[in-house]
Amino acid sequence: MPTRKENSKDLIDLLRRMWLIRAFEEKVSALYAERQIVGLLHLGIGQEAVAVGTCSLLRPDDYVFGGHRSHGHALAKGADVNRLMAEIAGRATGYCGGKGGSMHIVALEAGFVTATGVVGGTIPLALGAAFAAKEKKQGQVAVVFFGDGAGQAGPFHESLNIASLWRLPVIFVCENNGYAEFTPLSAHTKVERLAQHAKTYDISSSTVDGNDLLAVRTAISKALGKTRAGTGPVFVECLTHRLRGHYEGDPAKYRELSQLTQWKSKDPVARFTRLLKSKKAITDNELQAIESEARSRAEQAAEFSLSSPWPAEEEVATQVTADLP
Amino acid sequence: MPEQTYLEAIRAGLHEEMSRDSSVYVLGEDVALGGPFGVTKGLSEGFGVHRVVNTPISEGTVMGLAIGAATAGLRPVVEIMFIDFITLAMDQLVNHAAKLHYMSGGQLKIPLTVRVQCGISGAMGAHHSQSLESWLAHVPGLKVVMPSNPADAKGLLKAAIRDDNPVIFIEHRGLYRTRGKVPDGDHLVPIGRAAVLREGKQVTIVALANTVGVALAAADELAGGGISTEVIDPRSISPLDVETIVESVKKTSRMIIVHEAVEKGGIGAEITATVQEHALYYLDAPILRIAAPFAPVPASPSLEKQFLPNQACIVKAVRKLFG
Ligand SMILES: Cc1ncc(C[n+]2csc(CCOP(=O)(O)OP(=O)(O)O)c2C)c(N)n1
């Protein structure tokens, strides 16, 4: 349960944010199936509660870093729907003018500093933003999202050590979705709960149900309390599952159907909806309006993107360095 | 103009930039204690250990941290103790520092300086003697400079720190104790501009870092034999000052490139290809490279000596060009 009493308006707003991400990614998936969007796409459908539960508590000037599965993180931090989808579609109107793409989103105006195509690669970057924030004393924190697969990478361990040593205001959000590509966590490490590593480095940590929006919010809210107070980093492990394949087009044969069914029953959007209904915090009409508004925003983003121009040819080798021409 | 050693000039450059701009931070192993060569000696006393930061031995993560700090408004200077260990930070340098400006469509800037020491000297063997500059120069988005004297060391370092891009500043440890005049005041050397250190008419020698001194000595010797030699120090290998080199070759019609890195795939290959594109018909002889053999750097002092390009081989190669 959240630390402060949430009123229904706040709760409905959280649902709205999750729906926006869900509708956005379902639209991206549909466009990919039609070959209107190409590339290597990793969707976070099923993991929206982590993104929204975390980013809904952040300040606009807090720094967020993501990975290869980060459309939802950027949206949750406030990235513009149109510019984000246009970027994924490789258009000139995208956040990065089409030079970044799905795995390298940067939406600086929203405080989404960068994603990366290198697993674990942004964990050190978040430390750097936290280091700068600490030096500037403006109270910002840095948050980095990464998967369980990153937990066996060197930079992960080096980063936990340094963040702890220097008491950096960084929150590590590990989305433990049980798989790295096609391989279950148990085949990559004997360490079942990645929060265990935080203990090694003397970092305060918790493991929560990542499909329970309010549980994520509670953990992040506590983490922010500590981090903003200057006591150093916090590690939050969110147990979750992706409902799509590793990438669009992955038939995910490595996953038992029963497992998928079980996780579908814990779909964070449906689950939070049930909670709101049981609390009588939302009506069926309101629910429908939220879903259709999200879907229409995704449709509009698709129209905007597909009607946007491709980047101009000469853009291929501009902005290689930050020099004035 | 006061005389300084190469090492003192670098230290003075760091000191001046840290005084001028409070967003400049120095990070690296033992830097707050002066570092193994003493370059950062005294800095932590002047600026505090919060700006001259000792790091654990985590090159990759420290590099990433510096890149992240650069996205958030700092101008970090990271020291990598030996260029051999930049291998551990290559992921962050190549995938993030070099590309974030481009991949973000210009939203992000990475004003990062990486000070790294290289060079063959002191029989330190294969893990403390490499020359990896051409790896770095191959990556779009990274600038790479290699000063050969105290004045350039100071001026290029200050320019690197003020640059809004990642700049790899390669220091040659064989030069740390060499002395030279360093201009007073706010001395800056623009990145991407070569220096013609000796003018000549019949052959151009392009040399890097420690080999510049060797090339100048060879030029003296050749002058005794009646061969007029021009010596160019590119100073920056990315961007490379193609114009200065090409103009020189058009004048002299002969060129030799000298570096400590292995010949195969070295920066000499890039210079050769560029010069033939722009000045093939001016050439009276093939372009020669004098560089290390395609082997790791040996530890034995006698083999190390053999490994290095020396004055005698430069003189011999130039004479060969004249038939
Ligand atoms: C350094 C690196 N190695 C390998 C890959 C290929 N790869 C892409 S995603 C992935 C699995 C990542 O798993 P996890 O970190 O758990 O994130 P998830 O995909 O589950 O969100 C791998 C191995 C990569 N992108 N980067």
Number of domains of chain A: 1
Number of helices of chain B: 12
Distance between the termini of chain B: 43 Å
CATH class annotation of the largest domain in chain B: Alpha Beta
Bound molecules: thiamine diphosphate
CATH homologous superfamily classification of chain A: Thiamin diphosphate (ThDP)-binding fold, Pyr/PP domains
Mean pLDDT of chain A: 96
Strand residue content of chain B: 15-25%
Major sheet strand order of chain B: 3-2-4-5-7-6-12
Q: Which CATH class of chain A? A: Alpha Beta
Q: How many extended strands of chain B?
A: 14
Q: Mind telling me the CATH superfamily name of the largest domain in chain B?
A: Thiamin diphosphate (ThDP)-binding fold, Pyr/PP domains
Describe the structure.
The complex is a heterodimer of chains A (325) and B (323). Chain A contains 11 helices and 8 strands. In chain A, helix 6 (154-165) links the parallel strand 3 (142-147) and strand 4. Chain A has 325 residues and is an alpha/beta fold. Chain A has a single domain (4-307), classed as 3-Layer(aba) Sandwich (Rossmann fold), CATH 3.40.50. With 323 residues, chain B is an alpha/beta fold. Chain B has a 7-stranded mixed beta sheet, with helices on both faces. A 5-stranded mixed beta sheet of chain B has the order 9-11-10-13-14, sandwiched between helices. In chain B, helix 1 (6-20) runs parallel beside helix 7 and helix 9 packs across helix 10 (267-279). Chain B starts with a strand and ends with a helix. The relative contact order of chain B is 0.12. Classes of the chains: A alpha/beta (325), B alpha/beta (323). Chains A and B meet through helix 5 and helix 6 of A and helix 3, helix 4 and helix 5 of B. Bound molecules: thiamine diphosphate. Thiamine diphosphate (TPP) is lined by residues 42, 68-69, 117-119, 146-150, 177, 179-181, 246 of chain A.
